[in-house]
Design brief:
single chain, 365 residues, mainly alpha, two-stranded antiparallel sheet, 50% helix, 4% strand
Length: 365
């Protein structure tokens, strides 16, 4: 499978300056990266598509605030991680009224199954991907970035920036997650062995079948202590070696578009001045013919249904978009932008040397 080629600095500059074709190329070129980050972090949760769309919307509307085009990828990854964390917080804040509905991944969008199927993985590569189900939400968040670093898609500096950590602290966190991932690999092997160990059957007698960090610890402990199961930990290959040459997981049909099929199209919502989001192929990506209706309504809002003079004049598009229950219309709520500064947020600095390019940008929240 051919590697995805990301747009260069010239494309970023042209898109920032209003070139529609460059903007289309920029979005289509980076959409697979964002999809893989969000997919790994959320584990195929039904919110995955929404988070991907919201990330790309905010990046497009914040593009004019990008001061260093060479830092576009770092900036985009930070936006994606902010949206992932926001989604985690929103799910935790949802008030519980009536019957509790368990928050689980959409079976039809399980990112582990999609990865194994679309990349045709087998052997230890399949085991590594299956093992990610056993990580906690925080562990998957870090894994989503480190996985792409190991595959050569991100740099350690970009991973550290997105995590708001120093490279040294990032290295410590990565080692911990790798250890948990190896433990999960042993769990996968232990559970797949047939016939099943009688002692393991006793351990998992009360297990509901859903992978979790708690049951990972219990099953891994049994595997270490059991003479029959401890062989599951033998001959584990280095995880870096297993994923080093893996391509990105291809986009699902709902998130992708074929540029050749849309050549020559030009779509606008009103007679207002042309907005990069609402013309050309990108408009079809965000309209809903290829993705969710929320993105279409957001595009309509910023294209002129809401007067351009009423938009927030500050850099970046940080308005929260929410669905109107009765009519399906979208309301734009005044938002704000934050200046990304790791030293202020985390209480530490990057030490001597130049400030990473992404820190000098306005990050749409």
């Amino acid at each position: 499978m051919a590697a995805v080629r990301e747009p260069g600095v010239a494309t970023v500059v042209a898109a920032r300056d209003g070139d529609q074709r460059a903007l289309d190329d920029l979005v289509s070129g980076y959409l697979p990266l964002v999809y893989n980050i969000v997919g790994h972090a959320l584990g195929g949760h039904e919110d995955t598509d929404d988070v991907v769309q919201e990330t790309m919307l905010r990046a497009v509307h914040g593009l004019s605030s990008l001061r260093d085009p060479a830092g576009f990828r770092s900036w985009l990854v930070v936006i994606a991680m902010n949206q992932i964390r926001l989604r985690h917080r929103e799910r935790q804040r949802v008030p519980v009224t009536g019957e509790i509905v368990e928050d689980i991944a959409d079976p039809g969008a399980d990112f582990v199954d999609l990865t194994i199927m679309r990349l045709q993985l087998s052997g230890q590569r399949r085991e590594v991907v299956a093992a990610t189900r056993w990580l906690s939400a925080d562990e998957r968040e870090l894994l989503s970035l480190w996985w792409l670093e190991a595959a050569g898609r991100l740099t350690r500096t970009e991973v550290a920036n997105a995590l708001e950590l120093t490279p040294q602290h990032t290295a410590v966190r990565v080692q911990r997650v790798k250890a948990q991932l190896d433990a999960a690999r042993i769990v996968v092997r232990t559970l797949e062995r047939t016939p099943r160990c009688p002692g393991l059957a006793d351990v998992v007698a009360d297990w509901d079948g859903d992978p979790s960090a708690l049951w990972r610890k219990r099953i891994a402990r049994h595997s270490r202590d059991c003479a029959r199961c401890e062989r599951a930990g033998h001959d584990l290959a280095s995880v870096e070696g297993l994923i080093a040459r893996l391509p990105l997981v291809p986009l699902p049909a709902a998130l992708g578009f074929d540029p050749s099929a849309l050549a020559g199209t030009h779509v606008t919502f009103s007679q207002a001045p042309v907005d990069p989001v609402t013309s050309g192929k990108l408009s079809l990506l965000l309209k809903g013919s290829l993705v969710k209706p929320i993105a279409a309504a957001a595009a309509a809002v910023v294209s002129g249904i809401v007067s351009p003079r009423k938009r927030d004049s500050r850099a970046g598009f940080a308005g929260r978009i929410r669905r109107h229950e009765s009519s399906g219309a979208i309301a734009s709520v005044r938002g704000n932008s934050v200046h990304a500064n790791t030293a202020k947020r985390t209480g530490h600095s990057h030490g001597p040397g130049p400030v990473p390019a992404w820190e000098d940008q306005t990050i749409p929240t």
